[in-house]
Amino acid sequence: MTTLSEVAHLAGVTSATVSNVLRKRGKVGEQTRLRVLAAVEQLGYRPHLTARALAEGCAPTLALMVSSIANPFYPEFALAAERAARENGRFLIVCNTNDDPDTGRAYLDQIAGTLSDGVLVMNANLPIDDLKKTEQRGAPVVLCMWEKPDEPPELSCIAVNFFEAGAIAGRHLIDLGHRHIGALVGSKANGIHAERYRGYLAACTEAGQKHVKGRTRYVEDAVDAGYEGAKALLEAHPKLTAIFATNDLPALGALNAAADLGLTVPQDISIIGITDIQWARLSRPALTTVAVPTNSAAEMAVALLLERINHPSQTTTMRMTATPELVERASTGPAKT
Amino acid sequence: MTTLSEVAHLAGVTSATVSNVLRKRGKVGEQTRLRVLAAVEQLGYRPHLTARALAEGCAPTLALMVSSIANPFYPEFALAAERAARENGRFLIVCNTNDDPDTGRAYLDQIAGTLSDGVLVMNANLPIDDLKKTEQRGAPVVLCMWEKPDEPPELSCIAVNFFEAGAIAGRHLIDLGHRHIGALVGSKANGIHAERYRGYLAACTEAGQKHVKGRTRYVEDAVDAGYEGAKALLEAHPKLTAIFATNDLPALGALNAAADLGLTVPQDISIIGITDIQWARLSRPALTTVAVPTNSAAEMAVALLLERINHPSQTTTMRMTATPELVERASTGPAKT
DNA sequence: GTGAAAGCGCTAACAG
DNA sequence: CTGTTAGCGCTTTCAC
Prior knowledge:
Two copies of one chain form a homodimer. By secondary structure, the first copy, chain A, is an alpha/beta fold.
């Protein structure tokens, strides 16, 4: 480990000067600058990020809280967030809360403000009070996917119009002539799924068609759960010609359920999801879904977080992503007549 | 931000004592201990990880280098690695190299030894020389998936018997009576895929059956590439009754290609992959594959890395994971006669 | 048992 | 332009 002062020694200057040339701060004579640079090169000096962070009073990382990075939606978000962070000189620490508030709190207590300058919160089942507490301790928090643009939370956030996403999905099905639609709704405590379901319901109402409560199944946000839910739905309601799922994972499960039940998609049954994860276009048939702007949400979240870090006085703000858009693939088609 | 000395002040002691009670080091009177603890509680004190790291001369994070966390295989590994790291008091920084050696080198130069105490390297296209250099600078490196147990690299590693994985896949196909087998081989520079292919080839030879070179396609490690490769293969060789892929992603692509070509799996064509990623059991038909012990590899890698960090003198070592195992699902069956 | 003091490697005034 | 100095928050040796 070569240190600043070793470089300084070699270059015949003091560490402050070396720091200056490296940070391009202050005035340094061209001669010394070159000498210092040569010494840096010769010794293979690399700044000690931890020491620098301590001296600058600002940590070099951002934390990303997710329930599990293994959930297929998060890696895509994490990739974009990491890239954005990196472009701003920050590294990304991934924290898997496993949906356990205690685990999440432990992370926050340990790293927020001491190792990470700010926290990106993806759906990770963290009590808002804990988040507000970490904000108060000086580590800004940004909620990456807020679902109720009409009700800004008490924290900065990137809002996605999930209500509209649900409505778009609903309208798509209705436009295709579907009158008997089943719904697979995420059962998580957070409102993300509820909002999408509300949007779908609104689309039905708007079309003068009411969704029958019995045709809704609340399921975990996972392929298996979607599979079971769809199977139950399809067996209980043979007349269903379409299934609306609040998320791609259950929708993908529904695709499998239909296949196992001997139903052809989309001839016998249409299936639509929301999000447009990687696998949506890779399933057979490819899944029709309403795409959420994941990448830009990640970039916006990182940008907002950095603003809050750099301007602590900045007031809590909410920003909207672009509206989700229908991605029509092969899993939806005209209703059987 | 409450600091040690603020706590010390409140408790009427010095910061050294507070540090002692918190670290459970040295001797501290029961009275003072309680007083200190009360002060910590009252002020909501949390140790500043960056400062601690600097003082201890040991960084609180481990770095995980992957080409892209969005590649479906990595999140599962990352989850297990993060858990293992966390159990040992370390946080995990995810570094996406995008398969670009320059990006990778930039990461290594910046964080190895300064922000991260050690580096886990998953397939990320990093020149071994760069890795050796970072080792020399004092940051241990562990290769997480080494493919040639017979040829230990010059770095510590967790070795997986990929040759055997390929052989298992080959034997499975042959046992099912397949005589006309196509191969989809990953084309990455690294030897991971080559080793699997060699294993497969060995299984063929062993069975007195030789694989026809023309029935091999080299493809990127992705669903799309596997799709195209399989399609080409199937169109060029109508007599094929099975496809061996060196990885699950191309195998999953082959599944789609077969479907689009109107072939039924496994009646018309059997398909097998290697790895057993999450999606393998979720595809329809579910993919038969040879499971690589991902979780234990991650745990072993973290354990080995920590050993090397704690005992810098320890010699470069290689450890084997358990042997990959066949997971028979629905994508393989008896050869058509 | 507890405190004083030095130092981890770097940055940031402020002098000169 | 360059050096001196004083920390950042914590750990740790060594006196008392």
